[in-house]
Give the backbone structure.
Amino acid sequence: MGIQNYYDVALNLVKQSGAYIRERINSPKDVSMKSCDVDLVTECDEHVEKLFMDGITKEFPDHKFIGEETTSSGKKVELTDAPTWVIDPIDGTMNFVHTFPHTCISVALLINKVIEIGIVYNPVLEQLFTAKKGEGAFFNGKRIKVSGEKDISKALVMIEMGTSRDPEKMEVVLENTKNMISKIHGMRTLGSAALNICMVALGGADANFEYGLHIWDFAAGDLIVREAGGVSMDPAGGPLDLLSRRYLCASSKELADQVSSLLVQYYPERD
Ligand code: IPD
């Protein structure tokens, strides 16, 4: 069974999930807290994760999953060489709860721990970002490229507060914001890690970094931004570690290094 077949099945399930998210965003939701009172989940997150996993299992019964909601209800993150779908059913759950329209489903397929497929779909604003390894990145079917910006003083940087209110983590976020703001063109935050990364892929922003996000927040976006010509790495400068909960991407290696050199580092508990 080839990558194109996996992609077609996944895209169809993502579209179905998107239709559900679009229909539910403006209706009342059953909201619960996870790790803290700003880390939210709704019955819609759980519904979408199940819809996607059931659909994949029906077609490819031996495929494995790392899903945000099954993990938060106790399942351990286990990344093996087997074909593994990494799913964030609603990335930007806080936005979804508030009806702020930057929210998406994010799915990636890893085989031998290499990201082969990435799909990020915001059904509210009809933004579909897709990539297959080695075949480029696309936005609503049109090929996209990063800006190529190399100079931090001209960069638009996507940042996030994250969903932890741990005082040490908050201090690092504030310090990095303060250190960077006078050295760049501007900062933006969408409230969805996957969409932040896709803005770099699109060339609308130039860099993004975050500590404390999970593999399901960035795996799909990571392939999309690299297929658009961007680079990703650990925020301290080494190779990206998919389970480290640390992420940096940029439109060029030069810019990624400049962003990295300004950052106070933070090492969350691993996935
Ligand atoms: C969160 C969002 C948020 C980011 C967090 C993520 P969720 O994902 O992407 O923007 O700052 O790190 O956990 O909880 O909405 O799926």
Remarks:
- The radius of gyration is 17 Å.
- The pocket of D-MYO-inositol-1-phosphate is lined by residues 68, 88, 91-94, 160, 162-163, 191-193, 210, 212-213, 217 (CB under 6 Å).
